[in-house]
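Summary for the funding panel

The consortium committed to producing paired sequence-structure records for every protein in the target list. Below we show the first two records in order, beginning with the earlier of the two.
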Amino acid sequence: EIQAVKDGLKKLADLGGLEGLEKIAELGGLQGLEELAKIGGLEGLEKLISAAGSEGGKKLEKIAEDIERAMSGLIQKDLISVDRSDQWIEVEINTSILYPSGSAHLQTEAVPILKDLARILRDFPNPMRVEGFTDNIPINTLVYPSNWELSAARAARVVRLFTADGISPERMAAIGYGEYRPRDSNDTKEG
């Protein structure tokens, strides 16, 4: 429980860049909260949380705007979409420009797009999840015995590229969904 509080405070500090919260997390979680309570009670904590959320939201908005500006041509062609809330950004890249069917080898034209994205993302401390998907066409090869392995390999390939382009590997997770969380219907060639 104490570790969860420490982790939560550290995440809040990272999100808003508030040195005070980072120090509270380092001081020992619950003890730090007790100190905070002495200083400003729950109102002090609420103010810190509100400030962290506001700052974090501004940083995320800037990241999203930078991505949209850099990828505007691909966004207009519906090959990339950028979605956001006050706590996350989702950049969805159409698989057709990333990989050939049944493969985790990036297509040549995908590499500069991903490098541009890495250039934007590398200076921000936010954690990242790279998610790999496949269609529902069964695969059974020595390299990819199922769509699970293929989707995980696709995500891992992007994480490796991002790492090579300066994004800290500690910030990233590669997640493979196989065919079980389709982004679109698999009923048509486009889906």
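The next record, for a separate protein in the list, is shown here:
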Amino acid sequence: ALANADPDTDVIRFEPSLFETASRTITLRQDHLELTGNVIVYGPGADLLSVSANHKLLAGGNGVFTVAAGIDVTLYGLTIADGNGNHGIKNAGNLRVDHVVVSDNAVIEDFGGGISNSGTLELTNSTIVGNFAAAGGGLYNESEATIENSTFHFNHATGDGGAIQSVNGSVVIANSTISSNSADAHGGGIA
């Protein structure tokens, strides 16, 4: 599915009344959400809205969300979950992730189960939990990433970097918790 072919920034907000009585899940059936233009997605809160790949391999095998190069995207207040053979987020653009939970995504033969970053990533007030990959179970970074007030726990890599692996890039981490992650090779927390 293509979202936002317009060059201006679109804003997606979810109607608050939809979440008054229960949390909601958007279940992807066949394809990932490919963001190809500037967009801000405002969810009602990670405990109220989940975007789930439903443990299925989505077409293209990219990410539950895939962010194209050269665009600005903000994801706020939602959970991104259950990618099986899919990254939670595959980013090549300028991505801001705030008050988001990225959980239970797995890429067996690839890097970055939770997030694979080759663009610019700003991760704040978020939780990366229970993701799995060959390297960088929570985050695989090969560009620029800034992490603040966030938590990485229970992520695993069969290679290096259970929580985070950065190769040919930089990661700045402030006021964050990295705990209970594991790797079969090096750096259960960071490699």
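Regarding this second record: The CA atoms of residues 182 and 188 lie 4 Å apart. The radius of gyration is 15 Å.
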